[in-house]
Design goal:
The chain is an alpha/beta fold and 250 residues long. It contains seven helices and nine strands; from the N terminus they run αααββαβαβαββαβββ. It has one domain: Vaccinia Virus protein VP39 (Rossmann fold, 3-Layer(aba) Sandwich), CATH 3.40.50.
Length: 250
Amino acid sequence: MIIFDREWLIEYEFLRIYCMVSMVLCFSGCNSQNMPSDKYSNERERMVNEQIRARGITDNHVLDAMRKVPRHLFVPEPYTSNAYLDMPLPIGMNQTISQPYVVAFMTESLHLKSTDRVLEIGTGSGYQAAILAEICDSVFTMDIFSELSERAEKILVALNFKNIQVTCGDGYQGWPEHAPYDAILVTCATTHIPQPLKDQLAEGGRMIIPVGEHGVQELILLTKTGGKIIQKAVLPVRFVPMIDKNGTWY
């Protein structure tokens, strides 16, 4: 039996993706903000029409972003053929890339503007950050797993995204250096809403976060008005837990 080093596998996966991205960009002459056509463009269009628009997502900025960003480049090679199906897929470290509809729903719920600064907790594959970056001025994204944040950063750099900053850190504490944020999007579930994230939300800001125990979670949408937080449940979901560096669920 051959055992491969995990760092080697990460580098191999990045090189595979980098080569795919480079070939597409070379032949198209386009950058990440004007995603090139590829053999998956029809699948992306079908994904948008059948999985997202048909289920009530109407924000054209969200729909356009999901048409552009090549989701297949953000998933490990064994799952590339399933990249545009409406399902979460494993990305390593017991983490997943969210199903396209949930990505679209969470993004639309924040009512994003082109001038917004957005914090994402749970970089994962980097796909959600790319969707946000297509819409907003700047995106700050963090993950507790260095392997995932490093891999995601390499993919985003290869795709020429210049308005995304990536770091490895404890998402419960947020990223105070760049606060306040107009919007915060959390892609891992907590048993309660972290106070540091509330504190880092700008006046008039919005946050969406899955809250609850294993298998019993709700997406909670928060808005900060007059310094007060107003929140409501908007969708039942199931996300991986937000954990600290010791693996303890918040």
